[in-house]
Amino acid sequence: MENNVAIRFEHVNKSYGNREILKDFNLEIRKGEFLTIIGSSGSGKTTVLKLINGLISPTFGIIYVDGKDISKENQTLLRRNIGYVIQGIGLFPHMTIRKNIAYVPSLLNHRNKERTRKAVERLIDVVGLDRDMLDRYPAELSGGQRQRVGIARALAANPDILLMDEPFGAVDEITRKMLQSEIIRIHEQLGVTIVFITHDIKEALKLGTRVMVMNKGLVEQLDTPDHIRNTPATPFVKELIEG
Ligand SMILES: Nc1ncnc2c1ncn2[C@@H]1O[C@H](COP(=O)(O)OP(=O)(O)OP(=O)(O)O)[C@@H](O)[C@H]1O
């Protein structure tokens, strides 16, 4: 496998009981790509994300991360290299923002407090929050600010891959726009591979270097935002674009 491939699904099938959710699913995501996934509810988007970080296993088929078959990898190490951001990220309410961000193995493991402090400050800068928020508690932040902390925490492990499941779903339109600009900047700055689920076609087209449209466990179209916009491959994609 070429070494510029971050994630690869090879003939993956995922069933829950006798319900087949993904059918002969194939996907290659290159390193540094920003892939957005959009599609009907229940089409298997979250299933794809959970398969990447080994939270669930395929029924058939193989998933490779950085060229390695993940079923043969140490799951803890795999997940350490993959950040996961979900809507309304569960911050620890009794810990300050500083502690919440530092609460990852790579920062906890070394005893160098100064290094941890610097790393946390760098992360809070990266997600565009003021440093004076570090000593507050999650309840003292707005929803959008908490979401930024969630991203900072996911980045704290210095992951190669960032999985984001509707991370901006619960915030107002203005905050959403700011978070979108922030994640584009973070992607450009850190070169991390991002897989991002959204229900908003505008968001999918704005953020993605490629967009995957899913419907009922199948890929309707996987293409650049321009191609999706200008040459929708199926009636489903056309309807999505025309809204
Ligand atoms: N643990 C489970 N057991 C049984 N069925 C499941 C399980 N997890 C998900 N499903 C089903 O699999 C299908 C795909 O779920 P998934 O969460 O991947 O969809 P999604 O595209 O992310 O949907 P949404 O946009 O609504 O979040 C759904 O029909 C869901 O009900």
TrEMBL record:
Q: Which domain of life is it from?
A: Bacteria
Q: Which Pfam families does the entry mention?
A: ABC_tran
The molecular function GO annotations come to: ATP binding; ATP hydrolysis activity
List, alphabetically, the SMART domains matched.
AAA
Q: Name one GO biological process term.
A: quaternary ammonium group transport
Source species of the chain: Butyricimonas paravirosa
Q: Which InterPro entries match?
A: AAA+_ATPase (IPR003593), ABC_SmlMolc_Importer (IPR050093), ABC_transporter-like_ATP-bd (IPR003439), ABC_transporter-like_CS (IPR017871), P-loop_NTPase (IPR027417)
The entry's protein name is: ABC transporter ATP-binding protein
Provide the alphabetized UniProt keywords.
ATP-binding, Nucleotide-binding, Transport
- Ranges for domain ABC transporter come to 7-241
